[in-house]
Every structure is written in C-alpha cells, then in structure tokens.
Amino acid sequence: MTTAYHFIMRHLGLNRIGVRLTLSYAFILVMFIGIGLTTVDQIQSIARSNDRFRQIDMQRLRDVQELRSEFEGIGIQLLDVFTKSYETKNDLYLIIDARAEKIKKQFEKISEYELNREQKQALNTLVECNELFRSNYYEVLNEYALDDLVAAKKIYLERVEPARNTLLTEAQIFLDQEKNSFEMRQQEEEYKLKQMQLRVFMFSAVAILIGALLAFFTRRGVVQPLDVLEKSALRIADGDYESKVPPTRTTEVARVGNALNSMSEAIAQREREIEQLAYFDSLTHLPNRTMLLKQFENTSFQHKAMILMDVARLKTVNETLGFGTGDTVILETSRRIQTAILKFNREDLILTKFSGGMFAVLTPMLSVENSHQEIQELIATIDDNLNEPIRCGNHTVDVNLVYGIAICNQNTDQLNSLIRNAEVALYAAKAQTQAVVWYSDAQEASRLSHLSLLSDLRSAVHNSELQMWLQPKVKLADMRTYGFEALVRWQHPQRGFISPAEFVPFAERTGYISAVTKWMLEHALQSLQNWKTSHPELSIAVNVSTNDLRDQSFPDRVRELLEHYDVNPNNLKLELTESGIMEDPSSAIPLLQTLRDTGIGLSIDDFGTGHSSLAYLQKLPVSELKIDRSFVINIDQLPSTQRLVKTIVEMGHGLHLSVIAEGIETEAERDTLRELGCDSMQGYFASKPLHGEALQKWLDQLPKTPG
Hints:
- The protein is built from 22 helices and 16 strands.
- The protein is α/β, with parallel strands linked by helices.
- The protein folds into three domains: 218 residues, no CATH class; 151 residues, Alpha-Beta Plaits (2-Layer Sandwich); 252 residues, EAL domain (TIM Barrel), CATH 3.20.20.
- The two termini are 124 Å apart.
- 27% of the residues are buried.
- It comes from Undibacterium nitidum.
C-alpha cells in the first residue's frame, strides 16, 4: 500500500513542493470561488423571492382586503336605503352598481394570481356567496324602486342580511387564508436565508478544514524536511561533517539535502587539505612547527631536549642548480634523517620540519649526562646517513647539517622557549662555522645584547654618538697624503667603545647599515666642505654596504648630498666590496655607472678576497683596486705572495686603475710594495686612524694649497 502510495505521489508529481503548493492554493481558491458563487446565487434567489413577495403576495393581500372592504361598503350602502333619502333613485342604483362592478373586477384580478387549492376553493365559495348576496340585494332595490319599504326591509332582514354576513364571513376566511399564506411565505424566506447562512458556514468550515489539512501535510512534507535541513546546516557550521542529511521524498528538499551533503564533504575535504597545509610540511609531509606546538601545548617540558638541524649551503644550491634541485635535497635529507631515527630505535623521538631546510627533533631525556651522549650518537647516526652525496639529476650534492641543541632547564617552561634556545644555538653554530653548538646562558645574554644593540644604534645615529675617524692614504712615490678613508667608531655612553667588527655586521643584517652610511656620507661631505679653501685636493673615501647597492635610489641621495654641501664629486670616493657587487652584478653595475657619471671615484675594497671574475672586473666603472691586508702581511719575506701582488698590480694598471695596498705596518712592507709598482698605501706605518686634535695636527703639517 505504501509503495503504491509513493508511486502515485511520484507519478503525479506530488513529491515536488511546487506541485503541492500549487494544488493546495488552487484547491483553496476553487473552494472560496465556489463559496462565493453559491452565496451570490442564494442571495440572488432570495432577492428574487423577496421581490415576488413584495410585488405579488402583498398586492394580492391588499386586493383581498380591499375586496372585503367593498363587501362591507355595499352592505352599508344598502342600509342607506332605509336611513337616508335620495333625490332620485337613480343615484342609489348608480352607487350600488359601481360597487358591484368594482367587486367584480376585484374577483377577476384575484383570480389571475397563482392560488393554491384552498385559496381557489375559498375564492369560489366567496364568488357564490357574492352572487347570492347580489341577487338578494337587487330584490331589495326592486322593492325600494316600487316604494315598498316594508317589503324591502323584510327581504333585507330575511335574505340580504344573512347573505351579507355569510359573504363577510367567507371574505374574512379568504383574508385569513391570505394572511396565513403571507406569513408562511415570509417564514419560508427566512428559512431560505437561514439555509443559505448554514450552507455558507458549512462550505467555509469545510474549506478551513481542508486548508488546515493541506497546511498539516505541507508542513509535514515541506516544513519538517526544511527543519531537518536547517539542523544539518547548523551542524555543518559547527564543524560536524560526518552526519548526513537524511533522504526525503520531497524533490526540492532532497536536492538541497544532496547539495548540503556534497558541500559538507567538500568542506571536510578542504579542511583536511587546510589542516594538512597548516600542520604538515607540503614537501616532506612531516609535521611542522605549528603541529608540534599544538601537540605539546599543555605538556611539561622537563627532561626534554630540542635538536635543530639546518641544511648547510641550501641557498647556494637553490641559486646555482635551481629550486627543484633544492627540493630534491630537502626530500632526500628528510628521508635519511628518518632512516637514522629508525636505526636509533627510539619511538619517543619526534621529527618535524621547520621552514627552509631546517628540521627539528624533540627527544625526552632521562638525565642530562645520558642525553648528551644519546644526542651525540643520534647526530653521528644522521651524519653517517648523509655521507653519501645526494643525486639530483645530472648533479651530485654533498649535504652537511648544522646543529643547534637546547636542553630544558628551570627557565624553560614552554616549547616555544625550548625552540628559541635551540635556534639561538643554531645561529651561533652558523656564525662560528661550527657543526654542533649547545645552547648556553652566555648565548642568551649575547642575543639579548644584540636585541638592545639595534635600539642603541638608532640613538647613536640621532644623538651623534658615532664618530668618523680618518686614516690617511699616501702616495708611495713621495709619501704625500692625497686623501683619507672614513672609518666609523662608536663610543657607547654605558658600554664604552664598541668595535665596528661587532656592530657593523649586525647593522648589515638588520638593514640599519643604510642609516650609518648616510651619517658617514654627511660627515665626510661636511669635512670636505670645510677643507675647500685649505685642502681642496684631499678626498675622503666612504665604505658602501651591500644594502646600499640594492637601493636604486642611492645615487640620487648621494647627488643630493653633494649639492647640499656644495662639494666637488671628485673629492668623494666610495669603497665597495667584491661580494657586495657580485651578489647581483646585473643591478649593481648600472647603479655604479650612475655614481661614476656623477664624478665620484669608485674603489674595490679588499680585492682578492671576494668572488669577482675578470669578465665582470673589466665592466666595473671603478678607478681603484685596494689590495687586502692578507696579501700584505710579511710580503717582503714571501716571494710567492710578491708574485701574486705584482700580477694584481699589473692587471690593475692594465685596466687603467690605480692600486692601493692597505694594512702596511713596516718599512719593509712599504718598500716591497713600492718595488712591485703599487701606487699608494694605507696602514699604521703611515698613520693610525685620526680624530679630533690628532687629525687637525696631521692636516696642519700638510702643505697648503695656494689660493
């Protein structure tokens, strides 16, 4: 039965909300139209009946009443025969004949109405009585015409009066019948009105009942499934993607339910993908840092150690062989680290992948002593697995890992702190070019010191805590000073003297070296401005960092400073490192050409220690090569070094460059460089860096340039 019901519902399309609602509204509309039409028809019928009642029945009742009045009138008129006198008898005859004629017409008029059987019988009896009465009262009139009033009176009393009474009685009976008929018709009309009201009420009640049933079935077939859809949607919104929308036979709701199920599955799949991206490394599929932090969010970190390891020279591999090769190196490194951990046979070791080529191992420890040994054994196992080069297509890459290790102490209460300590150790290993570094409190102190160093350096630039020291550059031919190199010094108000070797690399790493360069340029140009009249031939060389060479607006800023201080560009020199130029020669060379076009002299500092090639060297718009001190130390005692320096000098001269050697500390070194053809020198043998009074004394002993 149920199957047949559902087949009919599906065949007729009643399982569709649209069909159900259309049929429901159509049925209700038809019901109300039917009620309206029926009501209108009943009202029209009652109106017609009322019209008939008013026009016919009431008129007939009035006619019957008038007929009875005529009967009474003619009787009274006959009495006038005995009570009144008429001038002529004809007047009396005319009056009685007129009344008789009027009674006749009334009878004819009444007989034309639709009468029932009793009314017809009463009317016939009344006609008969009227004929009898008429014949009798004419005899009275005849006797009256003969002036026999006694005979007339006798006839009136014996025959006319009884006939008149009978006539009036029958007329009253007929009138009563008409009144009864009138009342019955009135009751009939009232009954019809009540029947119409009852039918309208019943139709309305049936319509309301059917509407309620349709609403019930609509709610059951539409609203309830929609409630189920709403609850399912709320569960999806709460993250419950497993519960499905139950099937329903309502087509539209079923389609929406299927769409919600599809949406739930799609969202669940995307959330799984997002979770995979959020908590796992996309390349190695290892848990990432976020996953590690989440996993140990509320875990005690006593007796745990963190090993951070980073693939050395990965940046070089990416730049040289491409990022595809770098990814292959990371994947193979990950596989070999996992193999080493499996060999170590410790299930409680957790390997994760951090950014770049950095991996992390979180390991429990029973004691500090045993942990040191276990960690060293684990590192040795990993290094053994990485001894064999990694094959990347047509290339093989040797992979080494740099390790930073941190062990929980009483101050390590969170995993983030443990990771941070391991990172401090890892960065120390890279800075010290060591393979393994264990975290110590001294590293933390150094890290905190460097954090405050940036803020202090900003204050030093703004508060003129920096100092510009100048070291003379001297021609080897006649030992004449022709310029200076500007060297930055920092006298900290609390820490005292801070070596450039400490804060300059830090400033380069943080990007604040550009502010230091600007400070040095301004002070150098200010000094040159002061020397314009006394020593216009002197120049000052300022060191330029790699960050400055990346800034395409640097030449414009230098030109603006030259214009501001009104200094001849030939008096300003800029010293550049080979490594800074070779980091991005395609961008650096056009920038240097712009500086050279301004008239500024350019010098390659520490030549011989970088990675420049002769192909690039001949393209560089420089005017000077500066031989690094490492080639100068004890050069008078090293013939091989002398040959190398001679080659550099001859190469420089061949490129039309002047050659200067730095770090000269002995007369023998100076004489040897002079014999090798070097043009100029700089070093303690000529002078240490000068500042303040010492610098002024040096300037005072120089020959004055004629004005």
